[in-house]
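Intended use. Records such as the Zinc metallopeptidase entry shown here are meant for training and evaluating sequence-to-structure methods. They are not intended to support clinical decisions.
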Amino acid sequence: MLYGFYFDPTYILIIIGMVICMAASAHVNSTFKKYSRYRSNSGLTGAQAAAKILESQGIYDVQIRHVSGDLTDNYNPSNKVLSLSDATYNSTSVAAIGVAAHECGHAMQHQKGYTPIAVRNALVPFANWGARLSWVLIIAGLIFFGQGTGQTIINIGIFAFSLAVIFQIVTLPVEFNASGRAIKVLESTGIFGSQELKYTRKVLGAAALTYVAAVASSILQLLRLIILFGGRKDD
């Protein structure tokens, strides 16, 4: 007991996950801010660079839109919309163009039928529902624990959460591949020179760490659920 409350040592797993995610987020923000001060020699904005990249790949059915916020850039394969944030759309910085190229990388994956992105997209509904229902199922299992079905319900809850973890893991190769495609196309189109490519690798590398951190945090949360609720005797 700790001041009248039960101290759960598995909280350390949550704390470690939070620290990892916060550190990764701070790193990507500081890196993006640093290389946002370097203007691209091409003079292209993020939106213009994205249009040029898509055209170079023969992709003419993707719409480029402006979306509010910073680093909220994304590509939606369902409606083929590439959204660029305030920090990217009209900026001529190396960082902005690098991020725009990364999102173009996802459009390129979609066009080429890149298998991991198809798998990730298929997992989206399962991951969303799994994350939402996991704790509901675990709590329901605890309520019915001792009646023969409690542990089964808990195990289903843990499995539901594991779907969200699998989604995070599948996301890693998708993001790394999109960044690799971005670097190659920035070089092949002549949008960036060697020094700008070096800066872009740093920006995209920092962004990739946020996905690694998310995976680590999710795995730690899953481990905590297994430690707390897995393998109980439901007599």
